[in-house]
Amino acid sequence: MSAESTGSRGFTYWRLRFRAWRGTRPFWAGLFTLLGGLPIAYFPYAQLHLGNLTLAMSTTAGAGSLIIGVLLVTLGLTMWFQSIVRVFAGVAAILLALVSIPVSNIGGFLLGFLFSLIGGALSISWAPGEPVRPAAGPDTPRGAPVPDDDPFFPEPRDGEAPNVPDMTAQANGGRKSAG
C-alpha cells in the first residue's frame, strides 16, 4: 500500500452509506412494522417451559397468526426497499395490526400490535425530503441565496418570460376572443 491509498473501506464509510440509505426511505416505519410482525407470528407457536410445566400458546387461529406476522414482516421490508408504496404498506400494516387483536393472542400480547400500529402510522406520515440547493461556495452559510448561474435552478434570462403559466382571472373565462 502506498501513502496515498486509503486502504480498505472502514467502518465510517459503511456507517455513512447506511445513513444515506436510511435517509431516503421510511426506515423506522419498516423497522417497527417488521418487529411488530415477529411476536404476532411467534407467540401462537411458542412453548414456555416453567420447570416441568409446559405452557403452549397455540390456538385454532395459529395459521392466521402466522400469515399476519409474515405479511407484516413483508410490509416492513417493502417499506425499506420499495418506498414508493409506503402509504399502501402503512395502511395495510395498520389493518393487519387491528386484525391481529382477535386472531393472534391479543396482537402478540399487545407488543406486536403496538409496534405494527406505530410502524404503519410512521409509514403513512413519512415523505421524502426536498433536495438541498447547493450553496455558492464553501464559506457561504447554509440557506444563503444561490447565485443566478446555478445550472440546476436556472433563472430566466433578460427579456425572457419566466416559465410560469399565466393564472390570472379573465372576464371571458380564459377563452380566446373570436375577433
UniProtKB/TrEMBL annotation:
What species is this protein from?
Streptomyces hebeiensis
UniProt-recorded name of the protein? DUF6114 domain-containing protein
Q: Which UniProt keywords apply?
A: Membrane, Transmembrane, Transmembrane helix
Q: Which parts of the chain span the membrane according to its record? A: 27-45, 57-77, 84-103
Name the Pfam families for this protein.
DUF6114
Q: Where is this region: Disordered?
A: 132-179
Q: Which InterPro entries match?
A: DUF6114
Q: Which residues form a coiled coil?
A: none
